[in-house]
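User: My collaborator and I are trying to settle a disagreement about how two of our proteins should look. Neither of us wants to argue from intuition anymore, so we agreed to look at predicted structures for both before our next call. Could you fold the first one, then the second, and keep them clearly separated?

Assistant: That sounds like a sensible way to settle it. I'll keep them separate. The first protein:
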Amino acid sequence: MKRIGIITWYWGNYGSILQAYALCEYLSMQGFDCEVVRHHVNGDFRTQVRYRLSHDSLSSNAANIKNKAAGMIYGRIQKDERAERMRTFERFVEENLRLSERAYTNQDYAECTDYDAYICGSDQIWNPSFTFLSPFYWLAFLPEGKDAIAYAPSLGTAEFGNDDRETVKRYLLRFKAISTREENSGKMLETIDPRIRVSHVSDPTFLPGADFWKSKVKSTKSEKKYLFAYLIKGNDRQREYIEAVARERQLELVTYPYLENHRITKSERTWGDVRCFGDDPFDFLTKIYNAELIITDSFHCSVFSLQFRKDFYALKKCGDTTGQFNRIEQLLKACGMSGRMISEDKPFRRAETDFDASDRAIAALREESRAYLDRALS
């Protein structure tokens, strides 16, 4: 049986954990001996500083320092609630993910050679602003004879400079098969060298299918109808907008506060009729599945809302300087759901959507994505 090691993020938020879980579970269902490589790798501090100083403007570096400082301050202010969520994530990961026994670091990841094939992805592990072109996430440390496969990594909206393009070219020519989650990321990579061919595949959370995720929904159900608001980068105006929608439709407002620690505002400290801190990723799925209405700025919340055929709406992230909302726009456009993108500047109106057409679009991309993995792992 072929042993597969997956290198991806599996911590910090619901989407990252569930995408890692989805890919590993799907491959295990296909008969592979599969596990997620346990690691603590993201470029050492010196590498991060050098990369930021050579690539980012002074204003960007100043903003990054400000955000980190704010995160430390707000992390202390909301210490108990945030600690409860992190403990829940850690417990879920240990109990539900197939993780390697050994954990690798910046110093020893080149010793991770026990697998027959390696898959990097998904999530934004190829976004240089987050992982600084670390060889680990591009599988550049593998010895000859080991298959390197990319499944749906995201680059964010990165544009590589000449030096970085040479580095990325060297990385990519090592791969047996390359795919990205966003189609425009794949097209950009193909401009680096004519030998590079990139497939477009779905996020891993689409691979197992909706019935798989429904089986993970917990039996608990709220007695009241509710609006589930899942905002990663929400601001005061967006929260007021969502509160007004909930009141108008006489729905209880269920929220997950403090998803991004350096953007906590005064309104967020009291926002929501039901405020959830101890929910694990399956509770998150349950909140989506049972909601009467969903408003989110999250890619993965949108993904699960689509699969559960929920009445959901995508609110553009505030302060989205890196264009991360583009991935939600691309997803909704591909599914014929563009009418579900909303703005706090316009009155809220329910969208009429053909979920049958959306299901067909998702099924087609899912089958293409499964076929890509079959070819890559053959």
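The second protein, kept apart from the first:
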Amino acid sequence: MSGGLDPQGLLQPEWPTPPGIRCAVTTRATPGISQGPHARCNLGLRNGEPAATVHANRALLRAALALPCEPLWLLQVHGRDVIDADAIETGVEPRADAAIARAPGRVLAVLTADCLPVLVVAADGSEIAAAHAGWRGLAVGVLEATIAALRTPPARLLAWLGPCIGAASYEVGVEVRGAFVDTDAGAAGAFTPTRPGHWTCDLAALARRRLLAAGVARIYGGDFDTRSDPRFYSHRRDPVAGGRFASLIWRDRARP
């Protein structure tokens, strides 16, 4: 398992972020009041747990991280829409799978439980982004749309690939493989045959390939497996009543 947890049960991403940039990933050990299969810090509102419990968990998270404001929680739909968080009022849940921000103190978050969370920051710390990249989102270009929404040239961006289902745990069929290989023959390298009509899929490798093609060369992370790592929620491992964990990024202070 890559990376230890801090005393709050939070994973601190290991990548060379510029000064003033903070990020964190919640786990099942992060303070919360969820019970049963959701225990203990489910942050998803649409996974069979009372909304009051989820909102309490989100309040505990804000306190644990001393967040400057409530994160911008997205209504994620496996698409490619990107929201400018600086133009959204606090408390609104926009329908999108990625967000960007430039103003200090704005907190971006994506919820996952096998899909890939991707955090992005400009090398000078001037802007940040967070994207929810499951296979559908990757296939329709959510990462490319996120990069295009930023003002920073891609060569000056850094990306971190958070916890997602690992290749050894992720068997897919013709639909998933075709969504990538039919338009990019080189993507076949991310798929390994298992049985007729099925392959294992390296989601992180597909994301790296797309980020590189978009001009982002400084890519970190990607060495997790949510299905085999009990610290994280996993839809494949717990399909009926699993929770969601969050990957967050924010600018802690204004640039000098």
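Some points you might bring to the call about the second protein. Residues 21 and 251 are 5 Å apart (CA to CA). The chain has a mean pLDDT of 95.
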